[in-house]
Design a protein that fits this description.
heterodimer, A: alpha+beta, Immunoglobulin-like, 2 domains, five-stranded antiparallel beta sheet, four-stranded mixed beta sheet, 6 helices, 36% helix, 27% strand, B: mainly beta, 45 strands, globular, transmembrane (chain A), EMC7 (chain A), Carb-bd-like_fold (chain A), membrane (chain A), carbohydrate binding (chain A)
């Protein structure tokens, strides 16, 4: 029994989980020119399960990543970066890098393969401020209420022309209907409902 | 209430951002770095002077309690850079060398980082071992060290987990790794000493009675082991008692054995014998950061401080500080070492004099006066009532003229302030205590008084004088009036609500945005901040009461505004606040203390102490506090509950105890794993007050039934004495009717929801 336990203990020391380093670099571009522009930034896998910091040359290393599929994202205060899908194989192969679009399923993976070490660059600078809005006539008419008002106005102007082009009998009927409606309205106002309904 | 929240949620998208032009106008933020650590020389505040620049461009480096590595400009106290470490990666130590700062962080020093000292940019981040495989030692800096090889490379030597030394190149590659072959044995390496030819790893190994010094020498280029030997010694304290020193004779190690100093000269073959110096008896040795210059400080049993130097002839006493023995006149001394621009060492003794009520610094310069040494003394008016006591002092010395030493002292105080003193002159103060805010409360400011009201009888002359005084603001008023009349410009919500004139201070702006933020920090200080600018209006140190003798600290629990502007009559004075805090003395006793002060000025309400003094508290409970509430009636009363659920009132007047005769029913919600050691913690979630003549006699839990979504998990009834389930008061027919109506309504409710009653 003791021998078995010692064998198991020996086995336990042998089973070490292979941990690969995931390395890459940030390519400086017009959105993010250098480390002073980027500031303190972290490259994380999934929700911060493993992470590495970006150094002044833009390089980063995420140490001891256990095999699996991860979503790589860059946490930066002022810049927005693309997200990537990283597959860390359990053998000594290099990690596989694929693009990932937020909101799409992780599987099946994208057929496009990106080179390793990971290259990633800033897509845009985060803007935390809204521009001050000036007076804008077009913007005002894009408001649904304004559009409804405009439509009603057009109808009002167009009614006489429509009446002209209509069949005389139809016009008569329409006028009768209108008179009825007017009568109903006035009766409602006076409170004499009986006369209106007649 | 829910509807209110919903409405607030609807409104939220409309005000989700501010315009870029308004940034810094209506809002503000202050860059803090955290309170510098003072426990070890390797994490506390230190000067960094770039070689090619003047001292005015110097930086102050520190690791802080907020787990931040930061640099502050010595010239003006502004933040040069800061690097925020992850919470799981605490800073163990930092070392500066040339233009880089290297740090080890995480368990056992698992991660090495190097920074450019002038910009704070990360040069290198290297994981040295997995955090979970570290050998955990206490304190955390034992078994970790950083050193730099004595060659032209910018490589780093890192000792981690007490048994592994790595040489890491500037690009992050590990040049070599040496791991102690006997990890299982009890050798704990703690220091690295480098020479051009050899690297010495110093450690302690356990022997029967005490510890033995163990030294291993390694090749700097390959990391291969050259020699390894135990040096016969008898060290009783831990690894921090070893002092590795660089001397003209070569590297040496000094330690205290019993009462005598013992030193050994290190050679690559480790053939040196330890020499015992029986000339003087010492109680302890202090590393002042001058080990590269061979200097250190040893304290005698009576506290007298001596500067010692190791040279060719052995230990040499270079200076004994006068009157540095423990006495009633002076507080215990702090010793600190520093360099000047030419690299000459200086040793300073900083102490507080109870007699003078001032702080003093004695700076010893060994190289001056033809090598005899020169001491310059300064007394500086450190405000102990404002900044507490000096916890750490870092020294940099300037030598503008021969024999004219000007010391620059960077002090870390117990309230979390960082101060830079140039001799007797205070250059700047940073209130880093504000990075450790415990509790805070907003207090409204009173309206501005336009015309002082006449009080009582006034003679003609007095009235004339008053009117003349009032008339001095008239031109300004006129200009404002004309401007407003002509341009229609009124106070804008998007302009800073700062006072326009001197006498406007501490008055509200047109919209009431400007308030006083009263806040208490974990370091025993209470501040009044101007909400429009973030400036400190006033600050007071919280007094320790009887615990001042033993030492202790004050943990703020809650702040209540006991008198607002609306409550206060003009002649009564301004708004008042009460800070409820727990005083934890160093002997373990916990008391609950209340501090009562004016919110606008910080003046103590009963004004027993002068304005510049510390704020005195009132002991309420001789024990810990369970909870504190504010009862809002005509006057506000703070109710404190001790661990035996006894109720204490503040202020405890007959009127207030009468007012608090009514009951409150409070519901607590347990939050799992929120407290210490994974214990659940209770948070009050709701409270409902009962009328004065009612009592809670029992709580009846609602029977469990299919109806699950009722909002509250408990319903409660107020029972009246012995006659079972009846509502309070059967005296009048009104009460009886009301009771019946309520019962009917409840029945109808249960019937509708299908519950069984």
């Amino acid at each position: 029994m003791a021998r078995l336990i010692s064998f198991l203990a020996l086995l336990g020391t042998c089973v070490t989980v292979f941990g690969a380093d995931v390395a890459g670099f940030i390519r400086w571009n017009e959105h993010c020119t250098d480390i002073a522009d980027l500031g303190q930034a972290k490259v994380v896998l999934d929700n911060g399960e493993a992470w590495g910091s970006v150094n002044r040359n833009g390089n980063f290393v995420i140490p001891d990543v256990t095999p699996g599929t991860y979503l790589l994202s860059v946490i930066s205060h002022d810049h927005h970066f693309d997200k990537l899908r990283i597959d860390v194989p359990s053998n000594a192969e290099l990690p596989k890098v694929r693009p990932y679009i937020a909101g799409t399923p992780m599987n099946p993976p994208s057929p496009i393969k990106l080179p390793y070490p990971i290259r990633i660059s800033a897509r845009q600078r985060n803007t935390y401020f809204v521009p001050r809005e000036g007076f804008n006539v077009l913007g005002m008419f894009q408001n649904p209420m304004m559009m409804m008002m405009a439509a009603a106005g057009v109808m009002m102007l167009a009614t006489p022309y429509l009446m002209k082009s209509m069949d005389p009998e139809m016009v008569q009927e329409f006028q009768q209907n209108q008179a009825k409606m007017a009568n109903l309205q006035s009766s409602l106002q006076t409170g004499d409902i009986k006369s209106g309904s007649a | 209430m829910r509807w209110l929240l919903f409405l607030a949620g609807l409104c939220a998208p409309l005000v989700h951002a501010i315009h870029e032009s308004e940034v810094g106008v209506v809002d503000w933020h202050k860059l803090q770095i955290g309170v510098p650590l003072t426990g070890s020389l390797l994490t506390s505040l230190s000067f960094h002077v770039p070689r090619e620049r003047q001292s005015a461009d110097g930086l102050l480096l520190s690791a802080t309690s907020s787990n931040v590595l930061a640099a502050v400009y010595a010239g003006n106290g502004s933040v040069a850079w800061r690097y925020i470490y992850d919470a799981s990666d605490p800073i163990v130590l930092y070392q500066q060398h040339k233009d880089i700062v290297a740090t080890l962080s995480g368990p056992g020093g698992s991660t090495l980082r190097t920074f450019d000292s002038s910009t704070g940019h990360l040069i290198l981040e290297k994981r040295l071992h997995k955090p979970d495989t570290a050998r955990i030692l206490e304190p955390s800096d034992v078994g970790t060290a950083i050193s730099f090889p004595s060659d032209d490379t910018s490589d780093v030597l890192a000792l981690t987990s007490a048994y592994t030394i790595r040489r890491i190149s500037s690009s992050g590659n590990v040049v070599w790794t040496w791991t102690s072959p006997d990890q299982t044995s009890s050798v704990i390496y703690s220091h690295i000493l480098t020479t051009p030819d050899v690297i010495y790893a110093l450690g302690l190994t356990k022997s029967f009675r005490s510890y033995n010094l163990h030294v291993t020498t390694l090749s700097p280029t390959t990391g291969s082991i050259l020699a390894s030997a135990d040096i016969a010694s008898d060290i009783t304290s831990g690894p921090n008692s070893l002092l590795p020193l660089t001397t003209p004779k070569g590297p040496q190690v000094a330690w205290l054995e019993g009462e005598y100093l013992r030193t050994v000269v290190l050679t690559p073959s480790l053939g040196g014998k330890a020499a015992l110096h029986t000339g003087a008896e010492y109680a302890s040795v202090v590393d002042v950061g001058l080990s590269a210059k061979g200097h250190f400080v040893a304290l005698k049993a009576d506290g007298t401080g001596r500067v010692l130097k190791l040279d060719e002839k052995g230990v040499k006493l270079v200076w004994e500080f006068d009157d540095s023995a423990k006495s009633e006149h002076n507080a215990p001394s702090l010793y600190s070492g520093g360099l000047d621009a030419d690299g000459h060492p200086y040793v300073a003794r900083v102490f507080w004099s109870h007699a003078l009520q001032k702080a003093s610094v004695h700076v010893y310069a060994p190289h001056l006066a033809d090598g005899k040494g020169l001491v310059s003394g300064f007394t500086f008016s450190f405000q102990t009532n404002v900044h507490g006591i000096i916890k750490h002092a870092a020294l940099y010395a300037a030598l503008p003229k021969p024999y004219d030493v000007i010391p620059y002292l960077a002090l870390t105080t117990s309230t979390g302030a960082i101060q830079l003193w140039q001799g007797e002159r205070a250059l700047w103060t940073r209130e880093e205590g504000l990075s450790r805010i415990g509790v805070a409360e907003m207090v409204e400011m009173p309206e501005r008084k336009t015309v002082a009201a006449a009080r009582g009888a006034e003679t003609f002359l007095q009235r004339l004088q008053r009117q003349m005084r009032d008339a001095k603001d008239f031109p300004q008023y006129l200009i404002h009036f004309v401007k407003r009349f002509a341009t229609g410009s009124y106070a804008s919500a998007t302009s800073r609500a700062t006072p326009s004139t001197e006498n406007d201070s501490l008055t509200r702006d047109a919209f009431g945005f400007r308030k006083v933020i009263v806040t208490a920090t974990e370091l025993g200080k209470v501040y009044g901040l101007d909400s429009s600018s973030g400036e400190v209006l006033w600050s007071r140190v919280l007094g320790l009461g009887w615990a001042a003798q033993t030492g202790g600290h004050i943990v703020p629990v809650k702040i209540f505004v006991t008198r607002t502007v609306a409550d206060a009559e003009p002649e009564e004075g301004g708004p008042q606040a009460v800070l409820v805090a727990q005083r934890i003395a160093d002997n373990g006793l916990v008391d609950t203390v209340v501090f009562h002060f004016e919110a606008l000025t910080g003046k103590e309400v009963d004004s027993s102490s002068p304005p510049g003094d510390i704020l005195h508290g009132t002991d309420i409970i001789s024990g810990p506090l369970l909870g504190a509430y504010l009862l809002e009636k005509e006057t506000k009363v703070v109710v404190l509950v001790d661990e035996f659920r006894q109720v204490y009132l503040y202020p405890d007047t007959p009127a207030s105890s009468k007012r608090t005769s009514h009951r409150q029913f409070t519901g607590h919600q347990p939050v799992l794993d929120a407290g210490l050691q994974g214990r659940a913690q209770l948070h009050p979630t709701f409270a409902s007050s009962l009328p004065p003549h009612e009592d809670i006699l029992a709580l009846v839990t609602r029977p469990s039934d299919p109806v699950a979504s009722l909002g509250k998990s408990q319903s409660y009834k107020r029972l009246n004495g012995s006659d079972g389930e009846a509502y309070v008061g059967d005296a009048t027919w009104e009460e009886r009717t009301w009771k019946e109506v309520v019962r009917l309504r409840e029945d109808m409710f249960w019937a509708r929801v299908g519950g069984v009653r």
